[in-house]
Amino acid sequence: MSAAGAPLVLVVEDSDAIRAAFTILLEESGYAVAAAATGAEAVRLAESRAPDLVLLDLGLPDIPGLDVLRRIKASPTTAPVPVVALTGRDDEVDRAALMAAGCAAYLVKPVDTQQLIRSIPGYIASS
Amino acid sequence: MPDLRLTIQGGHDAEARVREVLAREGFRIVDGSRPEDGALVVEADGHGHGPAARETARRIEELERTVLELRNLDVAKSQFLTNVSHELRTPLTAIVTYGEILRDGMLGEVSPRQREAIESMIGSCRQLLAMIEEILTYARTNAQAINLQPSAFALEEVIRSVYDMNASLIERKSLEFDSVLPPGLPRVHADRDKVAHVLGNLIGNAIDFTPDGGRVQVVARRSPVEAGWIEVGVEDTGIGIDPLHHELIFQEFAQVDASRARIHHGTGLGLAIAKQFVRLHGGRIWVESGLGEGSRFYFTLPSVDAAASPALAHDGRGAESAAA
Question: Under an 8 A CB cutoff, do A113 and B136 touch?
């Protein structure tokens, strides 16, 4: 939780423009936002900031998204944090592996922003 | 020393062709081995055919090299398409997301006309994304980088989801849409996303090419000719397709009529992708239609019965795609 008491969402996305758009979307919807552009940064911020939710783009430049998810789930501090995976439509994604690794949901980009905002309380409650 | 040493990488068909040519040219194969995965190394002897045999050998080697180069080039081309598509999608995704943020008044109040303009911008971006994704899918399937993830599911569910995606368009064109599935139809055993893609393309075409007030119907039944298979059809009351073009439309980038392509914009890849996906499942796809009499597209999928019994599953190579 951030100081203001708003739930903290960690946005993991390598595109600056998309990361900035998600930051605005979430902040305007009443969430605090931490942002990471790489998998390594995501794992570090998940540990240090203790977010209430992670939005994880699977196509990261350094570490495959599935491995980032596994690292978050492997650490006792971050394991309970719900992770929602994001990917392009038609990308070859092993959904079974994602779900087995503890992914809370799997969304296709560009996500319907209204629907995402409606779904977030449910994701957070699922932790 | 053999007169000829060839490395053949094209699989059974290429091997058979090379053997045939060698036999015709008077070569005798003295040795064949498979040192590498998939490739066959053949050594052959020209037996006194002398310079002529060596010249033939040289030409065959040259041709084989050319075939290999072309095949590598094709893979590189597909890889390039994949990369370009990825690069194009990222900024478009940002535009759509920002558009929705503006539309929903998060950055200040929006007038109804502004909202309409933003909606149109978002819609155009999503359309562009859909086309890019189609190209990406085609490139990947062409590079044979697609793995099926089969599961058992009821066709109704997929038809419903494809209908939901097209509901507003169907309503806007006042189309009658229904699906007719016999009770007790077995579930299919297939890659659900790929089946949704095939149905989405066929239903999308049916909607596009059917005038306002027309009818689009999805049908399914047990295949009358292949035990254990399900035949799925998308039938419309649209403009129809001349039998002359029934084969052409399943080829990539084919547009029957360039002027029509301007109205019914698309990549020209929808049916080529549908064909690739159906074939990956070992099934067939074909069309029955004539000008002015609507179109009826059909494809086959393995049912859970076929998946459970290998005897019922066929390899799908026997049947060609275009039947009139």
Answer: no
